[in-house]
Amino acid sequence: xxxxxxxxxxxxxxxxxxxxxxxxxxxxxxxxxxxxxxxxxxxxxxxxxxxxxxxxxxxxxxxxxxxxxxxxxxxxxxxxxxxxxxxxxxxxxxxxxxxxxxxxxxxxxxxxxxxxxxxxxxxxxxxxxxxxxxxxxxxxxxxxxxxxxxxxxxxxxxxxxxxxxxxxxxxxxxxxxxxxxxxxxxxxxxxxxxxxxxxxxxxxxxxxxxxxxxxxxxxxxxxxxxxxxxxxxxxxxxxxxxxxxxxxxxxxxxxxxxxxxxxxxxxxxxxxxxxxxxxxxxxxxxxxxxxxxxxxxxxxxxxxxx
Length: 306
Prior knowledge:
This protein is of the alpha/beta class and 306 residues long. It has two domains: 2-160; 163-304, Glutaredoxin (3-Layer(aba) Sandwich), CATH 3.40.30. The protein has helices spanning 2-22, 26-34, 40-63, 67-92, 109-129, 137-145, 147-157, 210-225, 239-249, 260-267, 294-304, and strands at residues 175-176, 187-188, 199-205, 230-231, 233-236, 255-258, 274-279, 282-288. Strands 1, 2, 3, 4, 5, 6, 7 and 8 form an eight-stranded mixed β-sheet that branches. It is elongated, with a radius of gyration of 23 Å.
């Protein structure tokens, strides 16, 4: 009986672990790009499939479907995730958030590895001690019928942005950027951008905005993998906060710190983040956090820049 309870608890753990990654899913997606096994576009699919796999493993443990094979596969899955954690520890340091339990419970690589060692030990214990009994036909059919829903569910809970695969450029009326607003505000960087005669991508961020943090990480990955125009950041709130976000994303862009009133004027909308495409002092395009997808960005750059 204790081993049956342990099996069910481990099944629930896998399902909860997958659920915590669903919102926000972006940082989990970014992890596949950072270790070089996926593009930004395909990572949206890969992340959801892996979450679906966690759902399925958890459900199979609860129903005890093909139990010995499920336990062995679970061990392999945990070891695979542990290899990523070890890589993260070497590349990002021992204080990085591994994302193993989503952004809600941030775990360092050392804590997460300790957790995984415990899980593997418990799974091995189940292989040795859990009774393996023939299953009823009903349990088999319930388990098999859960395969497709398990993989589809992450796509329902957090749908893939349509702009990731089929970008359709919406109409946009270019307008002159109000460069004079920035004149009296603090600037952090080695050289101010020449807004009147250059091409720039400009993230406009609101302090404390969770989606702004996601946008900075996405920009960092796009800038690393593509030939983007120069980038500078405009943000409200304390500059130290925005600089810390950039450091977390592994980037160092010039930064203007403006007040909360003018950030809305510069952004041109009330939703944040706004990412502006500047061309010789003209705002040629404005992305939102949801439309700032790699294929969409590259298509806009090809369309609007000479």
